[in-house]
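Task: sequence design from structure.
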């Protein structure tokens, strides 16, 4: 998953808005390209433009064509990326940054030293594989267009090879991107990128060497040049990884992107909020760990993002930090609710969803985690305190006074967390946790939520619910499996002594 989370209605207003935003970013991109090409001639702006107006017009047309192709790609393939200025800004920020960095490296270091895979890595992590493949091609063509009008970036015979190098390196980065599970594993991707880059450079340089003579001195000079050029290729691959590591946190923060790297950091034992949950509400923490295991299994079987499911499960109950002692899993023998009215108890219990939402946002964590924390109980009634209140009154009670405020789950992952959360709590309390009893409990939980229309706002299907039920039964049976009761025995040693008693 990525920045495209959620759905919106595609209207004519959105079409016009997206088109205008593309035009705005097109102008910015053309200006960036023009400024880069002008370089130290910027003080003679008008004169330079006039002298080279044909070239600049051609370059402008080429960039316009690339942007138009990009717009049509998203219009027909993934319109969600065109809804909202944030997504469009992300696309063009990557494009602008890639152009600037590649141009400057090519001009002031060497054309082979360009971090050619930077754009591919950023789009792959922030948006997705399919978009990364497309944007990698667009970035390679864009750099090729700009190179054609540059007098200081590269020699003319290197312009065409630079396109092949950029495209190949980007594709390799995308293909191996799934193997990187941490930020620093990206460095390994940077080294892998070097292989095709240096191979292409080697072939180019050998081809050039063959035409320069066969003398020993020429050969030595040529070999030195080959290794020098390949060294620049190595630098380009490493810089792709280094710049990615440096820039990615900025994009994550600026565009509020929930990447796999950030998700893994948020679910580590060192994550601030989880560490606090473990220390102050250990019962809730352990419950969340089991729910995470259940949610992962369900997400994997439904083809949903496993990392998203795990992170959402970890944080779904952090709102209990506000008053951890009022939740059963954190209590000892004494229950504080015995001193309270059912109405007040219900207020405390249901407040943890809103408290969780606010706590997650206060820590500047991703919106998705906050949404799941708010939605994972939907509008379900708090049955225990409702039943308790019924026994204490002769009149009728309003069930809404004993229900969670909602909203209902908006995504399939939020629905998974809802079911897994309730299933873990119910199964843990079962006197007998046989597969049959677990099956009955999970089925009852799902059917109750269906009867109360808790899944009406998300795209979960009956087939999905069946898969979730089967996955939860299998996993919960494994987690809470029957254990053998060890007999009490005494250990008899060779010297005749008898020690200890194992319980």
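Answer:
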């Amino acid at each position: 998953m990525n920045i495209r989370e959620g759905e919106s209605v595609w209207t004519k207003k959105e079409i016009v808005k997206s088109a205008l935003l593309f035009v705005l970013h097109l102008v910015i991109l053309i200006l960036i390209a023009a400024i880069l090409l002008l370089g130290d001639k910027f003080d003679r702006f008008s004169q330079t433009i006039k002298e080279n107006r044909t070239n600049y017009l051609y370059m402008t047309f080429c960039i316009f064509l690339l942007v138009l192709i990009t717009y049509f790609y998203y219009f027909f393939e993934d319109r969600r990326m065109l809804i909202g200025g944030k997504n469009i800004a992300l696309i063009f920020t990557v494009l602008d940054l890639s152009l600037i960095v590649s141009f400057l490296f090519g001009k002031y270091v060497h054309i082979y030293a360009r971090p050619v895979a930077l754009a591919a890595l950023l789009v792959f992590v922030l948006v997705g594989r399919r978009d990364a493949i497309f944007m990698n091609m667009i970035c390679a063509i864009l750099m090729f267009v700009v190179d054609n009008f540059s007098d200081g970036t590269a020699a003319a015979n290197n312009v065409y090879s630079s396109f092949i190098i950029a495209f190949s390196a980007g594709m390799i980065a995308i293909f191996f991107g799934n193997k990187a599970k941490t930020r620093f594993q990206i460095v390994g991707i940077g080294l892998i990128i070097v292989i095709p880059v240096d191979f292409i450079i080697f072939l180019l340089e050998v081809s050039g060497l063959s035409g320069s003579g066969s003398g020993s001195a020429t050969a030595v000079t040529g070999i030195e040049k080959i290794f020098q050029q390949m060294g620049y290729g190595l630098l380009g691959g490493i810089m792709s990884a280094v710049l990615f590591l440096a820039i990615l946190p900025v994009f994550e923060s600026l565009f509020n992107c929930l990447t796999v790297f950030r998700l893994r950091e948020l679910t580590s034992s060192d994550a601030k909020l989880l560490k606090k949950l473990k220390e102050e509400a250990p019962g809730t923490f352990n419950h969340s760990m089991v729910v995470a295991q259940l949610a992962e299994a369900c997400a994997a079987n439904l083809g949903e993002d496993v990392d998203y499911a795990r992170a959402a499960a970890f944080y779904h109950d952090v709102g209990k930090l506000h008053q951890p002692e009022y939740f059963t899993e954190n209590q000892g023998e004494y229950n504080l609710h015995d001193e309270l009215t059912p109405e007040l108890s219900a207020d405390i219990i249901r407040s943890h969803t809103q408290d969780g939402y606010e706590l997650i946002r206060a820590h500047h964590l991703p919106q998705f985690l906050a949404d799941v924390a708010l939605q994972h109980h939907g509008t379900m009634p708090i049955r225990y305190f409702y039943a308790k209140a019924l026994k204490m009154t002769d009149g009728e009670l309003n069930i809404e006074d004993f229900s969670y405020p909602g909203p209902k789950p908006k995504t399939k992952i939020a629905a998974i967390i809802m079911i897994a959360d309730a299933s873990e709590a119910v199964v843990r309390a079962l006197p007998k946790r046989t597969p049959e009893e677990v099956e009955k409990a999970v089925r009852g939980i799902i059917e109750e939520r269906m009867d109360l229309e808790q899944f009406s706002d998300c795209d979960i299907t009956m087939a999905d619910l069946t898969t979730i039920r089967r996955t939860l039964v299998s996993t919960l049976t494994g987690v809470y499996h029957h254990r053998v009761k060890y007999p009490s025995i005494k250990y008899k040693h060779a010297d005749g002594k008898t020690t200890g008693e194992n319980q």
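The chain has two domains: 12-257, 262-479.
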